[in-house]
């Protein structure tokens, strides 16, 4: 089965991991700091805290934003469930706003309409690697006296109006799952320009532990002493995986370039195919494409999905609208809230896209898709 996404691992990646395994550090050591510093080279210098996975990154960002019971988070339903569920884990209420018809990113006007006096955070998602409209969303957030969070799980390396993703929101989260634009196996990161929020993120990912002497309430207890002032969780990313991430990051530009090349080949081959829409790209963005999401029209998505899977092509659907999950239905959310998102879901199909995808395999995908649509 040709997958829709796959990691690219080289001998250099293996050697980087093996070197750490032979050393003194496996958990929190110099590779953690090194990876965080390397990541800042892709966020316009905004410092990062690495964490154990993309879901942990979202939870950590919401904790650093200080949300809790009585607060509302406005976000998109066209995302993985964790964008919303981690806000609920902090005690907040999630308010879903509809997406743009073409990009499937959070619509700024819909977000503005969803704002109330309880809104504390607006969370955008860079669907498929295409950045959301951050200038418009920033105005909505500022008018609401709310923080802007970017769920950039798909988008490390993407650029919006000549500014890198990671520098566009108050807090940005990344995912390094194997299908993403670089991998640490499992892993993620939170970027935060504000030093207080970065400290809060690092504390939360480290069980809330305080070790700095000038912040201890009992500083003279002894050299071993450490304190917990606020609750956190163990969301630490170990040295051995950070070594893999640092090695991968050296190839991120090449990964992005190959994904762009494959996207251009899809665009050229599939343009004008009846019953199909190809993804859009705004003129002012430079995406690091994570997905290639076509839209299968005329109610044929399930038919085409089944036919391609039967042909050994592992297409995927990204995603079910979040509030369709039973856990949200049980909380009172109802279908029909975001018609653009629901229409997009009904048509969306992700074609295979990863750096090691060969032209020949891509041609096989194209031929099978065109045949299925006849």
From TrEMBL:
The keyword Transmembrane does not apply. The active site is at residue 180. InterPro entries: DegT/StrS_aminotransferase, PyrdxlP-dep_Trfase, PyrdxlP-dep_Trfase_major, PyrdxlP-dep_Trfase_small. One of its GO terms (biological process) is polysaccharide biosynthetic process. One of its GO terms (molecular function) is pyridoxal phosphate binding. Keywords: Pyridoxal phosphate. The modification N6-(pyridoxal phosphate)lysine is found at residue 180. Its cofactor is pyridoxal 5'-phosphate. It comes from the Bacteria. Gene3D superfamilies: Aspartate Aminotransferase, domain 1, Type I PLP-dependent aspartate aminotransferase-like (Major domain). Belongs to the DegT/DnrJ/EryC1 family. This is UDP-4-amino-4,6-dideoxy-N-acetyl-beta-L-altrosami ne transaminase. It comes from Catellatospora bangladeshensis.
């Amino acid at each position: 089965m040709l997958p829709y996404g796959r990691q690219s691992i080289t001998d250099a990646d293996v050697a980087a991991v093996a070197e750490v395994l032979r050393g003194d550090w496996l958990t929190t050591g110099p590779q953690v700091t090194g990876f965080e510093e390397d990541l800042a080279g892709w966020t316009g210098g905004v410092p990062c805290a690495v964490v154990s996975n993309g879901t942990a990154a979202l939870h950590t960002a919401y904790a650093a934003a200080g949300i809790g019971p009585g607060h509302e988070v406005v976000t998109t339903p066209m995302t993985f469930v964790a964008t919303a569920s981690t806000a609920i884990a902090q005690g907040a209420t999630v308010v879903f706003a509809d997406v743009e018809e073409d990009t499937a990113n959070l619509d700024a006007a819909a977000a503005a309409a969803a704002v109330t006096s309880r809104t504390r955070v607006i969370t955008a998602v860079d669907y498929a690697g295409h950045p959301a409209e951050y200038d418009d969303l920033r105005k909505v957030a500022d008018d609401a006296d709310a923080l802007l969070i970017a769920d950039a799980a798909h988008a490390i390396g993407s650029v919006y109006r000549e500014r890198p993703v990671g520098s566009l929101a108050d807090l940005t989260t990344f995912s390094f799952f194997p299908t993403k634009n670089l991998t640490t196996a499992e892993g993620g990161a939170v970027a935060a320009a504000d030093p207080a929020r970065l400290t809060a993120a690092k504390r939360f990912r480290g069980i809330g532990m305080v070790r700095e002497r000038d912040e201890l309430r009992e500083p003279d207890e002894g050299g071993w002493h450490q304190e917990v002032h606020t609750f956190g969780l163990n969301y630490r990313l170990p040295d051995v995986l950070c070594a893999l991430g640092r090695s991968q990051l050296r190839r991120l530009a090449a990964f992005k370039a190959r994904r762009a090349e494959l996207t251009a080949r899809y665009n050229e081959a599939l343009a004008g195919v009846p019953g199909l829409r190809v993804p859009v790209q705004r003129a002012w963005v430079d995406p690091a494409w994570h997905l290639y999401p076509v839209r299968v029209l005329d109610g044929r998505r399930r038919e085409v999905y089944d036919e391609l899977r039967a042909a050994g092509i592992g297409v995927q659907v990204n995603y079910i609208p979040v509030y369709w999950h039973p856990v949200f239905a049980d909380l009172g959310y109802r279908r029909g809230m975001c018609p653009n998102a629901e229409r997009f879901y009904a048509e969306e199909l992700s074609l295979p896209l990863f750096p090691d995808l060969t032209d020949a395999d891509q041609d096989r995908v194209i031929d099978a898709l065109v045949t299925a649509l006849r």
